[in-house]
Amino acid sequence: MKNSLKKLLKHVLIITGFAVLAILYFNPVLQGKEIIQSDIVQYIGMAKQMNDIRDAYDEETYWIDTAFVGMPTYQLGVNYPYNFVKKFDRLLRFLPRPADYLFLYLVCFYFLMLTITNDFRLSLIGALAFGFSTYLIIIIGGGHNSKAHAIAYMPLVLSGILLVFKKRYLIGFLVSTIGLALEINANHFQMTYYLLLLVLVLGIWFLIDAYSKNKVRQFFISVSVLFGALFLSMGLNSTNILATQEYVQDTTRGKSELTINPDGSPKENSSGLSKAYITQWSYGISESFNLFIPRFMGGRNSEQLDKNSASYKTLLKLGASPSEALTVVETQIPTYWGEQPFVLGPAYIGASILLLLFLSFFLVKGKSKWWLTSAIVLTLFLSYGHNFELLTNFFIDYVPLYNKFRAVSSIQVIVELCVPILAIIGLQKLLDDSIEHSLKLNALKYTFIGLGGLTIFFLIFKSVLFDFVNSRELDQLNESNSDLLSAIIDDRKYLFSNDAWRTLVLISIFSGVIWMYLKKILSEKLSLILFAIIILFDLVGVDRRYVNNENFTTAKTIKNYFRPSQADKEILNDTSNFRVYDMSSGFFTGKASYLHNSIGGYHAAQPKRIQELYEFYLSKGNIEVLNMLNVKYLIKSSENGRPDAVKNPLANGNSWFIRKLSLVDTADEEILALEGLNTKESAVVRKDIWLSFLDDSPQKIRQKTSSEFSFKIGQENYVKLVSNKPDHLIYNSKNEESAFAVFSENYYQPGWQAFLNGEPVEHLRVNYTLRGLPIPAGVHTIDFKFIPKVIETGSKITIVSLVIFILVLIGLFYLIFRKKNPEIIN
What angle do CA 473, 475, 478 make, to 5 degrees? Predict the structure, then answer.
């Protein structure tokens, strides 16, 4: 017991040290400052209405009407009932943001390496290597919080899986369940999906190993235990999973019903995103050397240069003043020369860690080497996207769900995870006295010669191997006025050479420490301390180029982003209910959603039909489509750049009766029919939707078999909005004869229910995205309520799963304290 407490205290001290490290790296949080994260700033705008309702009424809304003509809040951070996993996660993330994510990186990887090496020293070094990996820090700076969140729990999931395969079934089941539940709760399904691919690779190699050792039965026992953990963790997150699965069908991640593009050309037939969109961010093959040399491809889009740069001197020659030239070279020179649209920085893993990785190829044997190496190679190749079309197209076409996710370069997170695991296993072998000394020395020699030689080769032949321009810049080289581009190329070569020398020095020092350890000049303890220092110096030195104290500001400054302009103030004076199209900021921004009911927004999974309306009509300023979306104000940039509010007096309002309803056969015809349609008088509906509506609807429709229906509208007839909450809309109507009303609200069938005078009725989708409802003659009250059944269903499953988990937990504690099982206590 005394030894156990001593071990526990050691781990507590290390975890406390991780918390201190995280705070030190993001030290401005101690002054109450907040990190400037572009994605999170947009999220603040998107989630404002949901958060305002939560603060004002202490309740959750599952629908907002401030973005994309209305959308569910399922992917906006809503709090589901009985979501105890989220509460536990918040308990773990007790540090101020974003230090909490770095803390999770460090702690979870530490637990994983304890599972693998059972050596707290190696686990500590591994945690530092993973936690400060440059890409993982950069995504925090960019505001990809849910991505960082999901990546942080990946090591914990692997730890549970490996424990189960070590036949520590009960504790492995518990860790796997908790890890998977936290991973799913992080709510970045793309990262979780990539983790699943990694686990499949692991499983294949473990199966091969089990078959070779005649232990297949034991393998499938472990798999059964892990499936139990998976199902239980999914059950604990069932509301989120079910709601997301339901919603994704209506987003850009789901299959489009259209077969044409806005220009009339055939549309790629896909059940998910288009191949072009999926591979828009494809890692360049030569860009892989960023893992080893940070600014191999120039670093981020615009690295900060100085007065000694070639670009600065050229700008002076071209007539710029010293201050103008300095401003340009510090913020605007395009140093990145890869083919991705833009990058926040290199996915640098660390020269020192890659040295250990290549050492491990000589020293590590068995399945650990092969599943990790296979995962590294596979995910690196997949990150190439359209630069490795054979593999990418196979995965998009044949691997389930792969086509639901964009930015394939981000699959490199698996490389960032697996490289330090294998590197630390290699370090463990380096310390293992049972391995032949000469083998270690030869491994070091070959690794240093290989990596050092490669670096020197790049330094000598860089101008022969690379032109330091991307395809978009090639034409400019042939133009007469290419002096600035030539200067930029010189600066890119300088950054390349500078970091190549840095890498060469680091691997030389690291190799020197290893050599001195092997020659007994340095003790094991001192060597490990030096390894940790070099790795920290290596990674943090690059990390601070991209995420540092300059990324922080006061909360007031961040809120100033949403400060209303004069145009916004004019619009806010109008207290009626309408929508706004902010053309000055762009359609895809969360800023307008912070202040107004916007037809645009910012989200990775926006409503599919609004996206398609934008592509076909809104981007071209089609007034009739704007009218039917009740766009009363447009915000446009004036000649002096100031946003101006332009009133649209033709907006249709919240609801209206139509005179004509036309039926069309296909989705293509439906969206094309909006061209030139007088949306105040007419509406269009797809024939299959209409016929399905007639079968399900209790309303009696006299005309059933026609391609066009006519309705009479009296002068005193009306349908008007009288009460407006995001999830409950109330209208009053009066019509002398049976009529058909169109409601300027996004149609979303799973959840929205219509009521006529308190009785449930069916409604249908018209004008490609709006709601329509036949209304009998008379005076009526019409309610639209958002009552998602998926929340109720998910809540029931969550409660059952929670009970099962508690029973397992009780059983574990019983075995520990009553049976005193040493395997579990360990």
Answer: 115
Token pair for 725: 């909450």
Q: How many CB atoms within 10 Å of residue 818?
A: 8
Structure tokens at 287: 């860009």
Burial label, 31 (beta-carbon count in 10 A; 0-12, 13-18, 19+): exposed
Q: What pLDDT is attached to residue 826? A: 46
The backbone torsions φ and ψ at residue 786, rounded to the nearest 5 degrees and listed phi first, read -95, 105
Q: For residue 686, what are the β-bridge partners?
A: 664
Q: Is the CB of residue 108 less than 8 Å from the CB of residue 153?
A: yes
DSSP letter (8 states) at residue 260: B
Q: Residue for token digits 């092997």?
A: 518
User: 432-468, pLDDT tens digit by residue?
Assistant: 999 999 999 999 999 999 999 999 999 999 999 999 9
Tokens of 525: 């303890």
723-730 contacts at long range (C-beta below 8 A, 24 or more positions apart): 724/577, 725/61, 726/49, 726/53, 726/61, 726/63, 726/64, 726/65, 726/70, 726/786, 727/61, 727/62, 727/63, 727/785, 727/786, 728/783, 728/784, 728/785, 728/786, 729/783, 729/784, 730/781, 730/782, 730/783
Supply the pLDDT for residue 822: 52
Rg of the chain over Cα atoms, rounded to whole angstroms, equals 30
pLDDT for residue 710: 87
First to last CA, the chain: 11
Q: Point out the residues of the chain with pLDDT beneath 50.
A: 480, 702-703, 824-826
H helix count then E strand count, the chain? 31, 19
Looking at residue 816, its pLDDT comes to: 67
Q: What is the pTM of this model?
A: 0.90
Comparing CA positions, the residue from 580, 735, 744 lying closest to residue 655 is: 744
Q: How far is CA 446 from CA 450, 454, 557, 594, 666, in A?
A: 6, 12, 53, 58, 65
> Identity (one letter) of the amino acid at 244?
T
DSSP 265: P
Output DSSP code: residue 338: S
